[in-house]
Design brief:
Rossmann fold; alpha/beta; 7 helices; globular; 6-stranded mixed sheet; 126 residues
């Protein structure tokens, strides 16, 4: 089973773009997959939650989705981006869902597949 590792910015897409990322993931990944987040990603979302800004609301939506969709949380340490690269590089069949340009570049250098937003309503994998 393929792991789909969700980055912080990916979990904010449902609020920011009105995109059902889990339906889109099922569309582009017909094989069996399991969604995973790092504990550092959860901490980043929790840190963004205070206030009434659009980013705060998007972070709360992301946290709610982790719970509602039974996304597995994996303990991580240090920089979230470094932990994502380490996890994806060392855990076999992993694809990372992110829109972070620098992180995508690092992952591609390691030959890790990346799912990202294309336009404002579709996900793409490379």
């Amino acid at each position: 089973m393929k792991d789909v590792l969700l980055d912080t910015n990916f979990l904010t897409l449902p609020h920011i773009h009105g995109l059902d990322v889990f339906t889109e993931l099922a569309r582009i990944l017909p094989e069996s997959h399991s969604c995973v987040v790092l504990s550092g990603t959860v901490a980043e979302l929790e840190g963004l939650c205070s206030g009434a800004s659009n980013a705060s609301i998007a972070a709360r939506v992301g946290l709610r989705l982790i719970e509602e969709k039974d996304v597995r949380v994996v303990k991580s340490k240090g920089s979230v981006d470094d932990a994502i690269v380490d996890y994806a590089s060392s855990h076999g069949d992993v694809v990372v869902a992110t829109n972070d340009r620098e992180l995508k570049k690092r992952l591609r250098e390691k030959k890790v597949s990346v799912i990202s937003l294309r336009g404002e309503s579709n996900l793409t994998i490379n």
